[in-house]
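Q: what does this look like with adenosine-3',5'-cyclic-monophosphate bound?
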Amino acid sequence: MERTLVIIKPDAVQRGLIGEIIARFERRGLRIAALKLMQIDEPLARRHYAVHEGKPFYEPLIRYITSSPVVVMVLEGNDAIEIVRRTMGATNPAEAAPGTIRADFGLEIGRNLVHGSDGPETAAFEVPLFFTEDEILSYERDTDRWIFE
Ligand code: CMP
């Protein structure tokens, strides 16, 4: 089963949207394998977003992601990476489809509420940045057979 990293970003935490955002993923059927509230410090932010180093939005992005606690999660399910991306909507909330998290709660790309790994290699890089192996739980829910075929 595929795993992906999700960050409920500072704007969503400050706006009281943690529960709303977790509920959307949970209701969809994705299984929460790990979850915590944490403050991202600058070195971790720079590692996580290293791929964007040098871009015009990089320094504001580092300030944004370190500006308040965030909630980080590992979600799992078949095709979890793509399912999470589609549930979040396009990176720019202005372009996100109605019904997605970013469209329903956001307006601007620099305040887009939530992050999800953008592919299997990214997920393999990002998950261990935030969680040790023993923080990621393997378990089954009684409802799994009604969600996973
Ligand atoms: P995220 O999915 O976390 O990946 C990179 C983040 O950079 C993105 O969401 C936005 O929060 C932020 N960002 C700000 N400006 C841009 C931009 N012009 N293009 C892409 N990402 C941007």
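The pocket of adenosine-3',5'-cyclic-monophosphate is lined by residues 52, 57, 61, 91, 109-110, 112, 115 (CB under 6 Å). The first strand starts at residue 2 and ends at 8.
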